[in-house]
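ENTRY TYPE: protein
CONTENTS: sequence, structure tokens:
***
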Amino acid sequence: MRLGFYRRLAWTGIRQNKKMYLPYILACIGVVMVCYIVSFLSQAPVLHEMPGGSNAQGFLGMGFGVMCVFSTIFLFYTNSFLIRRRKKEFGLYNILGMGKRHLALVLLWETVIIAAITLVVGLFCGVLFSKVAELALTRILDGGVTYTMTVELNSVVSTVVLFLVIFGLMFLNTLRQIHLTSPIALLRSENAGEKPPKANWLIALLGLVVLGGAYYWAITVKDPITAMIGFFIAVAMVVVGTYLLFVAGSVTLCRLLQKNKRYYYKTNHFVSVSSMVYRMKRNGAGLASICILCTMVLVMISSTSCLYIGIEDSLRTRYPRHINLDAVVDCVNTLDGSHQEQVRVLAEETAEQYGATPSNILDYRVCGFVGVRQEDRMVMDDVFLSSYNMETMANTWQVFVVPLEDYNSLMGKRETLMPGQALMYTTKGSDYPYASVELGEGVTLSVAKQVDSFADNGVDAMQIIPSMYLFVPNFQETVEGVQAQLGEQSASSLHWYYGFDLNCDDDTQIQIGQQLSTALRDMESADETDGYFHVLMEGAAQERGSTYGLYGGMFFLGILLGVVFILAAVLIIYYKQICEGYEDQSRFDIMQKVGMTKGEIRRSINSQVLTVFFLPLLMAGAHLAFAFPLIRKLLLLFGLTNVGLFAGVTVVCFVAFALFYVMIYRLTSRSYFRIVSGMREE
């Protein structure tokens, strides 16, 4: 009987506070649903069997980990709004004779009821919409459609365990707050003011310094490898700087507005500014959280959308020709043998069998090795390279030595150089400011000129480190000089790259590639020379499925997480309006008794909205703008070089999100008006 009483009391508390609990339960259901869908897609056999599906599932597996962390933080944060609102009720129960042990039973039943509703409805919706999500991802991956409905038991178990742990932790956290607070403090918790933080100017200045440091680093970073190494540090600095700036900045802003008598002593502004002062620290933290979520949404959706939209550009960067052949040889003399001509003949004959003609020929020799740049010297010492650290990694380069005659042939140039000179080309936005380059300790080349471009073979697109191309007139002598000082662990690699485009569709390209690959293996088996000559073949048509799986998985996960983060921001905005409405209700009630009209209340609310509403959105826009150079360099690691596309997608995403943000805040502000005015909005 007593257990039934506590259960009824818990259910009554939920129903009476449905304005607070209903959005919370819906948010929990949504998070459970998304967690199940992400886990389901990461294990679905249908996706694993299609081209690129395993790549997409790898990203979705990482996405489930992200959802686990986010769900914990998000539900704890939103639950804090509920507990703050309910503390007064718990304090009343305590004064009326219920001990804290009895309150714990009420809270336990509330947790059980909400967890049961959340898991049952969330898993039902997850199973229901998992097929829709599977079809959407299949469409993104350009795969075949199946209409079989399946349920992943492992996904159900992992989702249930995750949220049982989260609800259990939230229950224990609520018990801790109730146990450590006296009944009188519980009764007054809703009206308890906050002491302004000390040294507001100092905190605000610290926030500006931290944020400015992150901005400066983001716009001055020169290469993708440095951007990748420092990305998470920059993100942490932005988060810390944003919270410091909003928490302390809200205090500073309110004080400045109070000192401005022409602004402060007006009906529209007096109540709104004084209300913000009353809860300035929590108000700043809430605004900072909204700002961070907005920034996460904008960065995630804009970058993943750009990668997916520009997938063909990335494919062309990675595979600059429809058919790309990479011949690996053992010595520089083999590069001048008869093997190359045999490969050219085989390629032409194979293409002609399918009515295709090779064009846009890529044909050059290269010697490649890795070095660490120390000013104008490329260190290639085994001991130095083995002691790898962050500083070494940031200065690591891929160096390619190419014959000058091959450069002239490919680029249509007539450059001439003296022995010991070189033309230089660097990639990934990296620059080389010196007049010469020393390869190890024995080979020094004078940089006659730095050129703007070179017909890349796609190798650089796979590298996270920048590349340096050196075009030399005495290729064999330079290569032998480099090889003479390299040990076995850091030996150079000799290649001959040959590629061409075909005037046929993807299926025909795949057939040509398969037949050519077989012919090349036969040629290598029949080769009786001593030199090593092995040809590797790649093609855009053959690799299109795996590339779509990689970028499509990122795009799908980015959209899914973006939607979740948007819903989180919406819920925080809603709770912020509701909680502040109840806190301001008594102040507006007093102002109405002394003559304040409903219209003046609405204008005061508009003043408050205009004062703080646009700050998170504007700050998120600033974060996105300063992060643009950093993200652009990170996208280079995925082969995306179209800056105009990224800029356009980013602007469109920001405008669309800003319109959505304005609409949501207008809708939630109506709830605030109804609470503080004591009547329904007309």
